Amino acid sequence: MMKKMREADGHRASAFFRMRVVAEVLLMKENFAAIVLGGTGQVGGAAIAELLAIPECREVVMVTRKPVAAQPRVRNVVLDTGAPDFSERIAVLAREVLSQGPVSAVSCVGVGTGSRHWSEEQLRQLELGVVGAFARGCHNAGIVQFCLLSAVGSTAKSRIRYVRVMGMKEDTLRSIGFTRLAIFRPGVIVGNAHTPAWNVWLGRLLPGRFGNIEQEILGRSIAAEIALHSRETGEVILENAAMKRLAAQLDS
Q: Which residues pair with 36 in a beta bridge?
């Protein structure tokens, strides 16, 4: 009797897995676009490259302060991120992109190791002010999925300034109310020009979420979240191991 029950459970699990794979394949066949803030940075560039590697990605809209080199399927929109109407301009842009089909929003804004040269007020202005305004504009336009680059261990209660500001940024995004909020918390990013060699060496010794993750994998995990999970709801926090599993879904 128990053997038959286990076999039945196994069949149900196998059927569920097959249904999920089919659903992911069907979702991948639907075209989508992404509006990206922070796309000129190292992680942002990796995410955009991975998005463009997906044929169903019809367009990547890069919001920048200065013009960037032209790329196929990339539209560059230059805006003053410090302007009082930045959020409203993002909303107008997002509505126009949404009129062509599904759109997800991505923020890869971050100063990383350079943060030690910034005051907390400057960090807040960028991470909470600019990213918050971008997110509110996207949400007001009707975008339901937002991917946020944060950092491992982020919490607004931390005594460490950078980690504290990252936690405050996460809380700011939570308060906006996206249907799907994916928070990416990488450890030591390998392959990033701003990551010191000694940090990568140390990352090999650190456990789990605090250790190394390849920048390419981080970028691919962001692309996978958009391509495969845009219809899911709720908040998901992705640390190193989860990002590696998510990135692998694009390879399967």
A: 62, 106
